[in-house]
Amino acid sequence: MPTAKLNAEPAPKIKRRVLNRDKLEAEIAAEAVRVFAECGYEGTSIATVAENAGLSKQNLMYYFPTKQALYQRVLDDVLDEWLDRMENLAAGDQEPREVLRTYVQAKLKFSREQPWASRVYAMEVISGAQLYGAQIQNRVVPLVRKDIEVFEKWISDGRIAPINATHLLFAIWAMTQSYADFSAQMALVLNRKQLTKKDFDDAEKVIVDMVLAAISVPQPVCGDAR
Predict the structure, then answer these.
(1) Is the torsion defined by CA of 167, 170, 176, 181 positive or negative?
(2) Which parts of this chain does the entry mark as a DNA-binding region (predicted)?
(3) Cα–Cα distance between 144 and 116 in angstroms, integer?
């Protein structure tokens, strides 16, 4: 019917508007993450983010009415990507050594490719997670508990050595995220302007070797056959 046709025509335009809004919001968040990482939450202004994004302050506030809303979006994006990497550990049917190797590789890749995102998250946690603690509690903790169950199953099956899985994860986070959060210090020690891909490759080998050594099942000592 003609009426139905007329009602259906605006749909593609509405879809394009939604896509354009999503794209612009993502671009604003990409600019904001660097400003938050450099200036902290208190030191960041909507005006600075808007200027960096090539928008007026009023235009930016149409998409993010408050600084806290923009900060929330930035941390949501960071956590989404970080949790995507953590979910690999939940695949308990795979070889533990390969799961952990892949996990370390993914965390280091995140530190290399998204250093600003890692720093924003670290700054929020260091400050006591006053603005984002509830999201961390609701999203990170359940996934960590699932991962710990995987470790416990590996241990009970004799696939890895008995180990405190929670603190092993803490250690992996600390080792991998430091290559984003403290990269400036590392570069100074290495006498260069910034870390190179080789630095990350070298770090991966050291961290993976340490993690795999921690979970290795001790080989039985053969008795004297004489």
Answers:
(1) negative
(2) 45-64
(3) 24
SS (H, E, C) 112-180: HHCHHHHHHHHHHHHCCCCCCHHHHHHHHHHHHHHHHHHHHHHHHCCCCCCCCHHHHHHHHHHHHHHHH
Q: pTM for the full model?
A: 0.81
Q: What is the pLDDT of residue 13?
A: 53
Task: Please tell me the distance from the alpha carbon of residue 226 to that of residue 106, in angstroms, as a whole number.
Answer: 49
CB 111 within 8 A of CB 176: yes
pLDDT of residue 220: 59
In Å, how far from its chain's centre is CA 189? 26
CA 150 – CA 144 distance, rounded (Å)? 10
**Greatest Cα-to-Cα distance within the chain, rounded to the nearest angstrom:** 97
Walking along the chain (226 residues) 10 residues at a time, the average pLDDT comes out as 46 56 90 94 94 92 94 93 74 82 92 93 91 91 89 93 94 95 96 95 97 84 50
Top CATH class of 11-215 equals mainly alpha
Q: Is the distance from CB of 113 to CB of 57 less than 8 angstroms?
A: no
Q: 190 to each of 60, 107, 112, 199, 220, how far by Cα in Å?
A: 40, 22, 16, 9, 41
**Residues for the chain: how many in total?**
226
Dist CA 46 CA 61 (whole Å)? 8
- How many other CB atoms are found less than 10 A from the CB of residue 156? 10
d(Cα 161, Cα 116) in Å, to the nearest integer?
36
